[in-house]
Specification:
The chain is mostly helical. The protein is built from two helices and no strands. The protein has one domain (15-85).
Length: 90
C-alpha cells in the first residue's frame, strides 16, 4: 500500500486535475449549454454549472476534514508526550 504524502508536499497532477480542472470543465460546459439559447438549455446549463461548483466544494470539504484529522493526531501525540515527560513539547 502506498503512503499518503506529507501535508507540506504539493499534490501531484492527478489531484490538481480532480480538484480544479474537472470542476472548471464542468462549469464551462454548463456555460456553453446556457449560451445555446432556449429556456430549457438555460435551466439545464444552470444545473450543470451547479454540479461543477458542487464538485469543487466537495473536494474542499474533504481536504478540510483531512486537515482536521491531522491536527487531532498531532494534538494526541503532544498529549502523550506531556504524559510521559511532564511538559508540553516545543
Amino acid at each position: 500500500m502506498s503512503e499518503t504524502p506529507p501535508p507540506d508536499q504539493s499534490p501531484g497532477w492527478p489531484m490538481v486535475l480532480l480538484r480544479y480542472v474537472l470542476p472548471a470543465v464542468v462549469v464551462i460546459a454548463g456555460l456553453v449549454v446556457m449560451a445555446l439559447g432556449s429556456e430549457v438549455e438555460l435551466e439545464g446549463g444552470a444545473g450543470i454549472v451547479s454540479a461543477g461548483i458542487a464538485i469543487f466544494f466537495l473536494n474542499w470539504l474533504f481536504r478540510a476534514g483531512a486537515a482536521g484529522e491531522r491536527q487531532r493526531d498531532r494534538e494526541d501525540e503532544a498529549r502523550e508526550y506531556f504524559d510521559r515527560h511532564g511538559r508540553w513539547p516545543d
